[in-house]
């Protein structure tokens, strides 16, 4: 047209062509526009989203609302037109929406929005009130549409509720994470932003500040950092969608705060933390394993135009069922990808049966030109998904199909149906009456309700107020209508309410029920669920229980016994008046305040013991124990008690009846004491005591009587009658009969009797009748006294008196012999001493030496005679010396042979090589004589007496069996006889003091107890073996003296001398001179003093003038011991020697007390004196 060379006709022709083209393009555009408008109209009217157009001002009034508003909010679209959106928005949300609208209005006024209509798209969330008054969470996408506002709004209530639940879940998750033992850390942008307590403890830190904000690599060992860094970088840069996928565990080293290195097990998961990608690291306390996973997920949010706010599946189908278009949507909702579906028919995509059903549905919609809804299942990803689809016919003979996933709803519907079925079954079959109330009137009930009220069917009960099925007034006097309304209001307010109510049956009968009202909501409507339970029987039982309790209370309060109920801890729950009085308290209130264990029991352990006894006897037992009266005195009670438990075995309380048995207890104690006293008398009485009843049966007897009868078993006596041998005497029988008939006592003395053991006894019998309170005789007490010993003692008394007179004569002779021996020793002392001195001076004069030796021999024989006299008078006990038992045995047998009958043969088996023993010859001599005497006296009809001596060795095993023996060599002396022998009972007692099996006139004066003592005193032991009729044998063990050198008197020793000064004190001048000459001949200096007092006087003037004192023991005025005591007070360590003519009568303690260093027996030999003097001086 710009070509200026064209003609006008050409230009007109081109213009006409152009007009035709424009007209054709306009017709085509109009058709496309019409089609687009139809599509938008169909989508707008059939979408589930709310689409509205409002005025663009501060009121934002509705100009257009699509039909979905009724489905979502319950409003008819025309009812909203002209109303402001702020009439429906929640007051709290107006604060957000209004400022936003106000801002755009201002920009509009300032014409700042001109040409920017398509650039503004504001999304806002708010709460919108539906027709019922409920609030919905809405999300609205707002665009400017010329001078109006276009809003596409979706109901997001479920999403919001899910978000709230998510926040609560996150809070719960946080508390769980904090409580985990596994260390948890969240790592964002190379920094720790969260750490739980377990990880802080693992790393040795206390505060979050020590960890948060640092790179996790700071806690990793340097050698592992590169590997951990690679893992982190790899995880964060990963392209895979690994979100919420836990990495494989790895072992890494971490460094604690104190520098120590730990091996940890680490795993990580990529999460979104406040909109940012983050790693949640989980660390166990044995390894560090950190692997980073990064999952990138992107979702398509911006759908084209209107579909950007929709999540439904939208597609088009033609009449043949061919897919024309599919809108972009979630892949989870698509059976196959759009590329596999578009252009294909339903039969090419779905199974035939499903395709036939779907195609029929599509054609029906198109044929009827009417929208329709269908529900159908699809198998997607191996799972069945349910969809709800709405088909809308289009003008081009196709349909627009919008489908929504209703799988979860279908599951809920199915669950609801099952629940409703179960509820309906429970509802109809329940034994309790169940009703439903709406708006204070019954709308439903079960068969139990109809039956309970006596009606024919439930239609008679529906649409009635609870008061219409009740009496006019309730038991408390209130109007049933008003009170019923109040009860229902309480249930609605609190959620539930339980109470008792009187209802009325159809026949007018009033009955009580227990009512439970529960407020419930069904499909946004409020109901009250009602349960009735007929409590007629319970009420009657309660009434009877009250009457029973009243009777029980009256009974308990009037009982003379105490009744209680108490807690396991020891507090009274209930008591009666009798118990209060019994324990001395003023009132029940005072008694119920006390602590039972502390205030009623004398020791807290006593109550515990009683409870333990009750548990042992299945929690019920009658026990008697004492309680403390308020005054402090004892109250003995008999408790008929038990422990009561609940269904789980827990103790609820203790209860019982206490009876005051204090008087009975005191009587029982007195009776028991009396019985015990009588029993002790009966048992310990040395006389036999029995009781015999009128049937002549023995009803009681003591052991003394059984022993007397020769019956070892007391039961045998109790089972017998009076026809015992002891009662065979006619005199006893007659006396017993008189005692039973006439009550006459009797006494029979010195009655001979032979027991079952053939033991001959002499007894006294005394009988006393037994009478009851009424004076009736029911038996006889008989006392039997064994007087055998006393009778024999009387017979022996004369013998004893004779022996006593003989013993007194011997004692007098002994005393006389002792005095004679002492005087004779004083005579012999100078003879022996001067003879020895003369012998020392005789030199080589053989004749004089021979004569002096004869004098010495005669003197020594005289000395031995004096020793025998002293032994007889028991004024001498020899020191233990090494003695040969062989000669001692021969000497004893020589002494005994004349007194032993010739019918007894004596055998000797003496080992001559048996070593000597360290012993007192006199005592061992007496032991041999005693044992031999006992042996021959046991053989009155003859026999053999054998004496053996040998050396034996006691080994360790034998020593263990006999504690008085030790390992080593012993001399074994055995004395055996073939006499009558002894039984075991006698053997057990033969070594007891004063025990003998012989008569008094056959004793030796030295019992076996003395023999036993002598042997034990010599560190030996004695054993005996015997059998009745086979004789006896005694074995004596005495330790031998090893390597003992015999004294050799024929070896002359050099006598020691000295130069010390000696004080000699003796009232016999000849003895004093003899001692002085002995000492001076060997270099000593000696002074003689005839009295002790003179010696003391001289010594006190110059205590250091004498080195030794030799004094006689027996002197007038001052004895040798008294003299020693006086002199040692002046000079503590003064050596002293005592001379005596009475033998070894001084004991070792006595000598030590007076400081005596040595004792020399008179007559004194120079060979005894000089060594003794030297020894005492040297030891001082």
What does this structure look like?
By secondary structure, the chain is of the alpha+beta class. The chain has ten domains: 1-47; 51-155, PAS domain (Beta-Lactamase, 2-Layer Sandwich), CATH 3.30.450; 180-284, PAS domain (Beta-Lactamase); 310-411, Beta-Lactamase; 430-534, 2-Layer Sandwich (Beta-Lactamase); 555-667, 2-Layer Sandwich (Beta-Lactamase), CATH 3.30.450.20; 685-786, Beta-Lactamase (2-Layer Sandwich); 797-869, no CATH class; and more. 40% of the residues lie in helices and 27% in strands. It contains 34 helices and 42 strands. Strands 2-1-5-4-3 form a five-stranded antiparallel sheet, sandwiched between helices. Helix 23 packs antiparallel against helix 24, helix 26 (921-937) packs antiparallel against helix 29 (1008-1017) and helix 31 (1092-1101) runs parallel beside helix 32 (1120-1130). It is elongated, with a radius of gyration of 68 Å. The model is unreliable at 239-244, 287-309 and 1044-1052 (pLDDT under 50).
Give me some keywords for this one.
single chain, alpha+beta, Beta-Lactamase, 5-stranded antiparallel sheet, 34 helices, elongated, PAC, EC 2.7.13.3, PAS_fold, PAS-like_dom_sf, phosphorelay sensor kinase activity
Describe the secondary-structure layout.
Blueprint lengths: L7 H39 L3 E6 L6 E4 L2 H6 L3 H4 L10 H19 L11 E9 L5 E11 L2 E8 L1 H23 L3 E6 L2 E5 L1 H7 L18 H16 L12 E6 L5 E13 L2 E9 L28 E6 L4 E4 L11 H4 L4 H4 L2 H17 L3 E9 L2 E11 L4 E8 L1 H23 L3 E6 L2 E5 L1 H7 L26 H15 L1 E9 L5 E13 L2 E10 L1 H23 L3 E5 L5 E4 L1 H6 L5 H4 L4 H5 L3 H13 L3 E9 L5 E12 L5 E10 L1 H23 L3 E6 L4 E4 L1 H7 L4 H5 L11 H13 L3 E9 L5 E12 L5 E10 L1 H54 L4 H27 L8 E3 L1 H12 L7 E7 L6 E3 L1 H17 L5 E12 L1 H6 L6 E10 L6 H4 L20 H10 L3 E7 L3 E9 L21 E5 L3 H12 L4 E5 L2 H10 L6 E5 L7 H11 L5 E5 L7 H7 L3 E4 L4 H14 L1
Parallel strand pairs: 32-34, 38-39, 38-40, 40-41, 41-42
Antiparallel strand pairs: 1-2, 1-5, 3-4, 4-5, 6-7, 6-10, 8-9, 9-10, 11-12, 11-15, 13-14, 14-15, 16-17, 16-20, 18-19, 19-20, 21-22, 21-25, 23-24, 24-25, 26-27, 26-30, 28-29, 29-30, 31-33, 34-35, 35-37, 36-37
Helix pairs in contact: 23-24, 23-30, 25-26, 26-29, 31-32
């Amino acid at each position: 047209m710009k070509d200026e060379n064209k003609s006008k006709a050409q230009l007109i022709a081109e213009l006409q062509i152009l007009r035709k083209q424009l007209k054709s393009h306009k017709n085509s555009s109009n058709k496309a526009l019409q089609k687009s408008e139809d599509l938008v109209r169909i989508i707008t009217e059939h979408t589930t989203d709310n689409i509205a157009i409002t005025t663009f001002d501060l009121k934002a009034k509705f100009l257009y609302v699509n039909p979905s508003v009724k489905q979502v909010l319950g409003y008819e679209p025309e009812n909203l037109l002209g109303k402001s959106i702020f009439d429906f928005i929640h007051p709290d949300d107006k604060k957000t929406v209004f400022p936003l609208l106000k801002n755009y209005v201002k920009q509009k006024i300032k014409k700042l929005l001109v040409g920017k209509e398509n650039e503004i798209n504001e999304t806002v969330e708010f709460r919108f009130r539906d027709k019922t008054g409920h609030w919905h969470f809405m999300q609205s996408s707002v665009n400017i549409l010329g001078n109006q506002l276009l809003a596409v709004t979706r109901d997001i209530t479920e999403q919001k509720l899910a978000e709230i639940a998510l926040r609560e879940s996150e809070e719960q998750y946080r508390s769980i994470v904090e409580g985990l033992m596994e260390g948890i850390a969240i790592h964002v942008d190379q920094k720790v932003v969260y750490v739980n307590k377990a990880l802080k403890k693992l790393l040795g830190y206390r505060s979050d500040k020590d960890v948060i904000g640092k790179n996790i690599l700071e806690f990793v060992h340097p050698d592992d950092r590169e590997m951990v860094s690679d893992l982190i970088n790899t995880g964060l840069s990963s392209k895979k969608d690994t979100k919420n996928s836990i990495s494989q565990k790895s072992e890494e080293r971490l460094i604690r705060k104190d520098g120590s290195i730990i091996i940890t097990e680490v795993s990580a998961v990529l999460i979104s933390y406040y909109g940012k990608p983050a790693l949640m690291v989980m660390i166990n306390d044995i390894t560090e394993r950190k692997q980073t996973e990064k999952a990138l997920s992107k979702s398509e949010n911006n759908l084209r135009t209107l579909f950007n706010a929709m999540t439904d599946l939208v597609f088009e189908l033609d009449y043949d069922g061919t897919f024309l278009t599919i809108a972009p949507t979630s892949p989870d909702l698509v059976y196959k990808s759009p590329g596999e579906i578009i252009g294909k028919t339903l039969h090419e995509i779905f199974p035939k049966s499903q395709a036939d059903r779907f195609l029929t549905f599509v054609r029906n919609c198109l044929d009827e030109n009417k929208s329709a809804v269908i529900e159908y299942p699809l198998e997607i990803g191996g799972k069945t998904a349910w969809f709800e689809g709405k088909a809308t016919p289009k003008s081009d003979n196709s349909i627009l199909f919008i489908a929504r996933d209703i799988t979860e709803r279908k599951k809920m519907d199915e669950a609801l149906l099952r629940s409703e079925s179960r509820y309906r079954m429970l509802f109809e079959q329940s034994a309790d009456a169940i009703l439903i109330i709406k708006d204070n009137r019954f709308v439903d009930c079960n068969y139990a309700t109809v039956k309970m009220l006596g009606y024919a069917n439930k239609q008679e009960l529906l649409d009635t107020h609870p008061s219409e099925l009740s009496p006019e007034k309730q038991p408390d006097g209130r109007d049933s209508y008003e009170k019923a309304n109040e009860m229902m209001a309480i249930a609605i307010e609190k959620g539930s309410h339980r109470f008792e109510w009187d209802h009325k049956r159809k026949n007018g009968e009033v009955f009580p029920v227990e009512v439970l009202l529960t407020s419930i909501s069904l499909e946004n409507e409020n109901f009250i669920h009602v349960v009735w339970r007929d409590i007629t029987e319970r009420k009657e039982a309660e009434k009877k229980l009250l009457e029973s309790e009243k009777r029980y209370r009256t009974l308990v309060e009037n009982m003379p016994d105490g009744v209680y109920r108490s807690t396991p801890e020891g507090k009274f729950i209930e008591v009666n008046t009798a118990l209060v009085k019994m324990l001395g308290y003023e009132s029940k209130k005072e008694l119920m305040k006390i602590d039972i264990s502390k205030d009623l029991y004398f020791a807290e352990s006593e109550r515990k013991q009683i409870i333990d006894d009750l548990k042992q006897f299945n929690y019920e037992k009658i026990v008697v124990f004492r309680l403390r009266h308020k005054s402090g005195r004892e109250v003995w009670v008999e408790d008929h008690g038990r422990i009561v438990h609940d269904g789980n075995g827990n103790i609820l309380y203790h209860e019982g009846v206490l009876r005051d048995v204090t008087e009975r207890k005191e009587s029982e104690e007195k009776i028991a004491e009396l019985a015990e006293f009588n029993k002790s008398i009966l048992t310990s009485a040395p006389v036999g005591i029995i009781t015999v009843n009128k049937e002549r049966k023995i009803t009681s007897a003591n052991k003394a009587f059984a022993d007397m009868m020769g019956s070892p078993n007391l039961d045998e006596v109790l089972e017998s009658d009076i026809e015992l041998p002891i009662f065979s005497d006619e005199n006893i029988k007659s006396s017993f009969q008189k005692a039973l008939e006439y009550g006459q006592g009797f006494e029979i003395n010195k009655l001979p009797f032979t027991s079952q053991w053939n033991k001959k006894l002499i007894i006294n019998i005394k009988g006393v009748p037994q009478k009851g309170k009424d004076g009736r005789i029911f038996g006889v007490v008989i006392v039997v006294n064994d007087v055998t010993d006393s009778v024999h003692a009387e017979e022996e008394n004369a013998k004893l008196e004779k022996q006593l007179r003989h013993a007194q004569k011997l004692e007098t002779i002994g005393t006389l012999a002792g005095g004679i021996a002492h005087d004779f020793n004083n005579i012999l002392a100078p003879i022996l001493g001067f003879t020895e001195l003369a012998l020392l001076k005789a030199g080589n004069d053989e004749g004089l030496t021979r004569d002096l030796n004869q004098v010495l021999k005669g003197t020594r024989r005289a000395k031995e005679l004096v020793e025998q006299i002293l032994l007889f008078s028991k004024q001498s006990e020899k020191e233990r010396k090494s003695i040969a038992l062989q000669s001692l045995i021969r000497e004893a047998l020589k002494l005994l042979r004349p007194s032993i009958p010739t019918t007894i043969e004596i055998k000797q088996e003496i080992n001559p090589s048996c070593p000597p023993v360290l012993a007192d010859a006199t005592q061992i001599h007496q032991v041999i004589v005693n044992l031999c005497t006992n042996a021959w006296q046991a053989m009155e009809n003859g026999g053999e007496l054998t004496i053996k001596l040998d050396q034996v060795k006691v080994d360790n095993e034998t020593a263990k069996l006999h504690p008085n023996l030790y390992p080593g060599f012993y001399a074994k002396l055995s004395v055996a006889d073939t006499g009558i022998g002894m039984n075991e009972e006698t053997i057990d007692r033969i070594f007891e003091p004063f025990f003998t099996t012989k008569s008094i006139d056959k004793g030796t004066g030295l019992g076996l107890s003395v023999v036993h003592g002598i042997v034990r005193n010599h560190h030996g032991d004695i054993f005996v073996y015997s059998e009745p009729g086979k004789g006896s044998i005694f074995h004596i063990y005495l330790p031998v003296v090893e390597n003992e050198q015999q004294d050799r008197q024929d070896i002359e020793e050099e006598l020691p001398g000295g130069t010390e000064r000696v004080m000699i004190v003796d009232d016999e001048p000849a003895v004093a001179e003899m001692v002085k000459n002995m000492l001076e001949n060997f270099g000593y200096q000696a002074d003689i003093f005839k009295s002790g007092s003179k010696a003391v006087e001289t010594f006190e003037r110059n205590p250091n003038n004498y080195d030794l004192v030799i004094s006689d023991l027996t002197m007038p005025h001052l004895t040798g011991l008294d003299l020693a005591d006086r002199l040692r007070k002046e000079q503590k360590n003064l050596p002293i020697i005592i001379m005596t003519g009475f033998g070894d009568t001084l004991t070792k303690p006595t000598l030590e007390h007076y400081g005596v260093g040595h004792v020399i027996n008179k007559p004194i030999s120079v060979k005894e004196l000089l060594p003794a003097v030297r020894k005492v001086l040297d030891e001082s």
